[in-house]
Design brief:
Glutaredoxin; single chain; alpha/beta; about 35% helix; two-stranded antiparallel ribbon; 4 helices
Length: about 110
């Protein structure tokens, strides 16, 4: 499932349960559009909810998560921030466009899917 948030309250509800990947991006961002296509391609194969946050509409939320580049991805499990597992290392966030196969591997490793 991919959800573009309409409010900060909705965001807080969406990240509360399950495996969640939050993408901070913008409609004018080319790499963000690439990642949207990838998220749409893999969403049915993974037990992960994708939450999109438009930094132009939710600047305060982006600041709260210290977003300085887009797209930026953060992982949550049952409302708690967790690190992504990337090649055996913990990463607090992912930046930029990532190839689909690499993205799927990272998500599977991160959420033990």
């Amino acid at each position: 499932m991919i959800v573009e948030i309409k409010s900060e309250e909705e965001f807080n509800q969406l990240i509360k349960d399950g495996n969640v990947v939050v993408e901070f991006g913008a409609s004018w961002c080319g790499p963000c559009q690439v990642m949207l296509r990838i998220m749409k391609s893999v969403e049915s194969d993974l037990n992960v909810k994708f939450v999109k946050v438009d930094v132009d509409k939710f600047g305060e939320l982006a600041s709260k998560y210290l977003v300085s580049n887009i797209p930026s991805f953060f992982a949550c499990k049952d409302g708690q921030s967790i690190s992504f597992k990337v090649n055996g290392k913990d990463e607090l966030n992912l930046l930029g466009a990532i190839q689909e196969d690499d993205f799927v591997k990272i998500l599977k490793d991160t959420f033990n899917l």
